[in-house]
Specification:
The structure is a single chain. This protein has about 280 residues and is α/β, with parallel strands linked by helices. The chain contains 8 helices and 10 strands. Helix 3 packs across helix 4.
C-alpha cells in the first residue's frame, strides 16, 4: 500500500508512541496493511537496513526522519525513539519478518518502559511462512505431521539445555530452523542423533521473497555439503521433515477431514460414501 492509496485522515492518525512493525520477509508487498499505514505515517522511521527492503522504506512520508539501525547499539536506538515520542512524534521501528521471532524486541520494550514511552507491536509475515510458500509446501500434513517446531541451532548464542535440537527433533515433526545455515554440520548430527532417517527431506530458502531468492532441496545427510556447494551461509531458513518431500503433491493419501464428504462438522453434514 502506498501513500496515494490512503486518505489524508488515515495518514494523520498515528499516536505519539513506538510502533514495532514487522516488515515481512523481503517482498515490499508482504507488509501488512496496518504496518504499511504506520510506515507511511510515522515521523521517525528506524529500520534494520541489512534485512528490510529499501523499496519499502521509500514509502515513508516526505519529511520523515529515516535512520538505519545497523550501526547503533541498543541504548542509542532507544534514546532516539524515546526522544521522538516525548516530543510528540510517532516512531516506526521496522524489523524484518515478524518481530516476535528472533527480533530482539524485548530489550527495546524494557528500556522504553523505563523511559515511560508507550509501544505497540504490529505483526508481520515470518520468513518461515515465506519459505514454505516459496517451496509450495504445507508444513502440517494430515497423517504425517501436525506440529511445526520453530527454533535455531546452538552456536555462539546458547539455547537452554532442554531445547537442544536433538531433543526437539525427537518429536519427528516438521522443524524450522532460523539463523542456522552456518551450523549445518551440527544440525545434521543432531537430527541423526534423534533417530532421523538420513534421507529425510530438507529444504533451504535463502532470502525468501527477495529478487535473489535461492532454493536448495537436499536431505539431512547431505545438508552441510550441499549448502557449502551453494555458498549459503546466512539469511536462510532451513525446513526439515517429510512434509518437505516435493513428491507429496503427487500423492492422494494425506487429505484433511475438513473437506472430506463423509466428515460432519459445524458447517456441513457428512454423507456416507456407501449409502
Amino acid at each position: 500500500m502506498t501513500n496515494e492509496l490512503m486518505t489524508n485522515e488515515q495518514l494523520r492518525t498515528l499516536e505519539p508512541k513506538v510502533y514495532i512493525v514487522g516488515a515481512g520477509p523481503g517482498d515490499p508487498e508482504l507488509i501488512t496493511v496496518k504496518g504499511s499505514r504506520i510506515l507511511c505515517s510515522a515521523d521517525l522511521v528506524l529500520y534494520a537496513d541489512s534485512l528490510v527492503s529499501e523499496e519499502l522504506i521509500r514509502s515513508a512520508k516526505p519529511g520523515a526522519e529515516v535512520l538505519q539501525s545497523s550501526g547503533m547499539d541498543l541504548e542509542r536506538q532507544v534514546e532516539l525513539m524515546a526522544t521522538a515520542v516525548q516530543a510528540g512524534k510517532s516512531v516506526a521501528r521496522v524489523h524484518t519478518g515478524d518481530p516476535s521471532m528472533y527480533g530482539a524486541i524485548l530489550e527495546q520494550m524494557s528500556l522504553l518502559k523505563l523511559c515511560g514511552v508507550r509501544y505497540e507491536i504490529v505483526p508481520g509475515v515470518s520468513s518461515v511462512f515465506a519459505a514454505a510458500a516459496a517451496l509450495g509446501a504445507e508444513l502440517t500434513v494430515p497423517d504425517l505431521t501436525q506440529t511445526v517446531i520453530l527454533t535455531r541451532a546452538e552456536g555462539r548464542t546458547p539455547v537452554p539445555e532442554r531445547e537442544q535440537l536433538r531433543q526437539l527433533a525427537a518429536h519427528h515433526c516438521t522443524v524450522a530452523l532460523f539463523l542456522s545455515a552456518s551450523l549445518a554440520g551440527h544440525v545434521t548430527g543432531e537430527f541423526l542423533a534423534a533417530g532421523w532417517n538420513p534421507d529425510t527431506p530438507v529444504a533451504v530458502v535463502k532470502r525468501a521473497t527477495w529478487p535473489d531468492q535461492q532454493i536448495l532441496r537436499t536431505t539431512v545427510q547431505n545438508l552441510e555439503a550441499d549448502l557449502h556447494v551453494a555458498g549459503i551461509t546466512m539469511h536462510a531458513m532451513i525446513l526439515a521433515g517429510w512434509a518437505l518431500d516435493p513428491q507429496l503433491v503427487d500423492r492422494d493419501q494425506h487429505r484433511s477431514k475438513l473437506y472430506d464428504k463423509s466428515f460432519t462438522h459445524g458447517c456441513r453434514e457428512g454423507v456416507d460414501p456407501l449409502a
